[in-house]
Specification:
Two copies of one chain form a homodimer. By secondary structure, the first copy, chain A, is of the alpha/beta class. Chain A has helices spanning about 5-10, 20-35, 60-70, 75-85, 90-95, 125-130, 135-160, 175-185, 195-200, 210-215, 220-230, 245-255, 270-280, 295-300, 315-320, 410-420; strands spanning about 40-45, 55-60, 105, 115, 120-125, 165, 190, 235, 260-265, 290, 310-315, 330-335, 345, 365-370, 375-380, 395-400, 405, 440. Chain A is elongated and about 80 Å long. Chains A and B meet through helix 1, helix 2, helix 4, helix 7 and helix 8 of A and helix 1, helix 2, helix 4, helix 7 and helix 8 of B. Chains A, B: GO terms for molecular function: nicotinamide phosphoribosyltransferase activity; nicotinate phosphoribosyltransferase activity.
Chain lengths: ~450, ~450
């Protein structure tokens, strides 16, 4: 076995330079030839709006971005491809051959919440080294943050009951791994996806499918086979035929020690009540009820009063519950007027009509708190930070002169998100549509 | 350089066994112990409904599925993970160690259209070898088919004008590569994603970003830098400041040989007309107009009368234009009552309430044609195929006894889709919401 294979199986991001739009490279070529490629530049990632009706966003994917920056290299294979397809010229190929990002990256720590205009990531270096990272950075943050935002709403709706991520079959096989990670950041507890367990050490769980019951000559045979092999603590799927009959058989076979039953169809509120009553009558008072079946945050909330012990969520999680991507952009906000590394930076911004303007200048961001210590505004500025906001600044250093900070444990990120959400006004966790829960103010 | 690294950079699917829900493995363990794992079984992939309002679905990802089946192995690393986490027992690990799919797979050829109930893929072998593939097969087909369906609608709306896939930054970095592939199948012509060019040889293109204009001291400097380096045939982005001013400058610098201008904001219909008139007045009658900016199939259709030469589509393509996943499921439909390979197959189906029932039995499918040779029904049955439908059968052999058919060129798949869509009633390409364009009939 070689290291390349090992890395591959880990679903890592090795030569991430490939995940790049062609224009990043042709802009590089033109800038190299024009002598402007080395101008010191500042790019910022932000979003002009939250998805419609959402109260807050969740930063997720930062850890993956840092890993991807580390692996962003143009090796012989890639260079041969670019040469064969005549995508860029010889001098550009030479430049790419030795590419390593040597600049600085600051950003909101992963798990933090964000609002329209929040400078979620700030990338600083020469134009050339920064522009190349655009597509890859946006891919990761736009995907992962969309999933984490949905997960966070579902976690609020679940009110402490465990959430199982089961969406692998509903999205691209590698997007699924990132989705599991983002769901964990947003508050999910476990995943069914083995790749996510392997790659990120997220706890994995499994129940059983209808196919297993149908394979056997009777539901009784199937339940007995599962309990014999996996123990009484297993989760039996009880809705292949008749639910009441299945619950009776399940407890008969596993006894009151039966771990859980799963309900995957029907009116979950009604069925959960009936199953709980039946389990209790059979003495299986500790047997838990797991519900699945096209759940989203609203369905989860509607089951708050039902005797449900865990929710399994698939489709609506991995598709961001109606918002499968964020609208984060990566914009140049300042640049030098010469290649001199000491040349001052000038703010720049697109001026055209059409709602896509942006605000020039390298930004700081802080979350202003009210007297009770609760967030009351996202404050963003380009000048000096007011003294009273110095301790509430949001951007942290992630890469310094090309040196990438050590990866954070995912549990740290997950806890940070819980704390960040708890620091917002109470209406943040209302599921109903509304405006961002705190306003963005510019100084 | 080692082979593992090379493969990795090709964005292949090496040890796809990882992309699996845990319950596939625990069901395997229980079936092995119960002596039912070797029962011959038939699983089918189908969907109970199309996304709301859609007239047809597009099968995409089949080629990726076959590649993934080929690479579905449990090597030492994976087995160690499963052992360390105590996910399955020793006998199951031993079984997995030698796993190779040795059964048969039939399916709709990639690029074909499908309808509710269409048996898009049929997997046959022992229960054990078939059940393991569920998650991975569904991940690929659900994702890729969703993108291809959106692409197909956009291609119809574009009416022959070229479509550029630009969505990499709006979805997971590897989902983006699969999305480019699916978009090509659905009728897109090119992609901005270099990884898609590298991996699938899809033609890549690029324009320029606002950052490039803002890097330079004036728009004029930026345009000159781009034309000097990339030639007069390049595409200049004209909406950073004032569009009319930019178009004038662009033609002044590049001359009437200017390849194209890109408009990325504003009222595209109005701006395209103005820009066309201006270009013509400046003598740049062959300079093309490329529009981008949150296009979907409706926006594309609304620009049919505008002087637009190409559409660049991002977000709405890679998120399936409102339907980022399909609802395909993988269900056991028949199985033997013993491990004897010659034991007859019995149809099986879930019977519980809640709308999730399915139809048992191994199925054939055919598309019945009317007198003009146009599709009039999707006919699905479990008995003998009526003689008049023998030539209209849809399922083709993809894997025979574990031997996987040679990969198809993507252009073949793309042409198949164009032909399949052309064989549907005209209302198939209406963008308005409606029922599936042909009914599904069961025999």
């Amino acid at each position: 076995m070689n290291t390349g294979d090992l890395e591959l199986r880990r679903v890592g991001v090795p030569s991430t330079a490939l995940f790049t739009d062609q224009y990043e490279l042709t802009m590089l070529q033109a800038a190299l030839r024009a002598g402007t490629a080395d101008r010191r530049s500042v790019f910022e990632v932000f979003t002009r709006r939250l998805p419609e009706g959402r109260r807050y966003g969740v930063v997720a994917g930062t850890g993956r971005v840092l890993e991807a920056v580390r692996n962003f290299r143009f090796d012989a294979d890639l260079l041969a491809f670019l040469r064969d397809k005549d995508i860029v010229d010889g001098p550009t190929l030479d430049w790419l051959d030795s590419y390593r990002f040597s600049g600085d990256i600051w950003g909101y720590p992963e798990g933090e919440v964000y609002f329209p205009g929040s400078p979620i990531l700030r990338v600083e270096g020469t134009f050339a080294e920064c522009v190349l990272l655009e597509t890859m950075i946006l891919s990761i943050l736009n995907h992962d943050s969309a999933i984490a935002a949905a997960a966070s709403r579902m976690a609020s709706a679940a009110g402490g009951r465990p959430l199982i991520e089961m969406g692998a079959r509903r999205t691209h096989e590698l997007a699924a791994v990132a989705a599991s990670r983002a769901a964990y950041v947003g508050g999910f507890d476990t995943t069914s996806d083995l790749a996510a367990g392997f790659r990120y050490d997220i706890p994995t769980v499994g129940t059983s499918a209808h196919a297993f019951t149908l394979l056997h000559d009777s539901e009784r045979d199937a339940f007995r086979a599962q309990v014999d092999s996996l123990g009484r603590g297993t989760t039996l799927l009880v809705d292949t035929y008749d639910v009441a009959e299945a619950v009776r058989t399940a407890v008969e076979i596993a006894g009151p020690e039966l771990g859980a039953v799963r309900i995957d169809s029907g009116d979950l509120l009604l069925v959960a009540h009936r199953v709980r009553q039946q389990l209790d009558e059979l003495g299986a008072v500790n047997t838990r009820i797991v519900v699945t079946s096209d759940l989203d945050e609203y369905a989860i909330a509607s089951l708050a009063a039902a005797p449900v012990d865990a929710y399994g969520v698939g489709t609506q999680l991995v598709t961001g519950s109606g918002h499968p991507t964020c609208s984060m952009v990566y914009k140049i906000v300042a640049r030098a007027t010469s290649s001199d590394p000491k040349a001052p930076l000038h703010p720049v911004a697109k001026k055209s009509l059409g709602g896509k303007t942006s605000i020039g200048g390298r930004k700081w961001a802080a979350r202003r708190l009210d007297a009770e210590g609760r967030a009351e505004a996202e404050v963003i500025g380009t000048g000096p930070v007011p003294p009273e906001l110095l301790d509430q600044q949001l951007l942290v250093e992630l890469v310094k002169g090309g040196e990438i900070a050590a990866p954070e444990p995912l549990d740290t990120v997950r806890e940070r998100h819980i704390a960040a959400r708890a620091g917002l006004p109470m209406s943040a966790v209302q599921l109903s549509r509304g405006e961002p829960v705190i306003p963005t103010e510019y100084m």
